[in-house]
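hiii, so i know i said id send this last week but things got crazy w the move. better late than never?? heres the sequnce for the chain we talked about at the cafe, plus the structure i predicted for it. fair warning i was half asleep when i ran it
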Amino acid sequence: MKNNLSKFLVLEVAILCLLSCEQGTTDSTSKNVWTDSTSIDFNTGRVKEEELQINLYLGHHKELNLAPTGTGLRYEIIRKTEGIKAESGDSVDVVMKIYLLNEKICYETDSSEVDQFLIDRSHVESGIQEGIKLMKQGEKAIFILPSNLAHGLLGDFKTIPPMSPIVVNLELNKVIKNKIKNL
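okay and structure toks below
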């Protein structure tokens, strides 16, 4: 009788283990399904988190008075001029410093050089290109770019981590008007 009871208990424990393993497998696979709703919830959460980070940064830098655009870019023209306005397709010479909200410098133009690129036709972050189109030659500005206007979900694989808003100090030294508007 004692031997049968032992066999019954071992059999019962084995059945319970199998059932619990089966349930665990089912539960874990259902948690790994990514849906449109999951993407929307993730992105909504990221936007709110970045907005909080940016607001905290601005709370510590009360001297800044950045205006928002419809895309999430925030900007302030620090030095205004009567220079020519930068437009899509124009070539620009800029000096810039890019850093994270914790003020760690990621990139900085060498003091003896300028960065040159075509607006809306280069690899430069879309937020920087949007901000430059708000400027005139000779102006200085500060931008805060949410990650979707900077380096997005992946970062730049060097100094800018994934999903990181960035701060850009930019001086627009020269605007070279594009003679052919439809490149």
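btw The chain has a mean pLDDT of 84. thought thatd interest u
miss u guys!!
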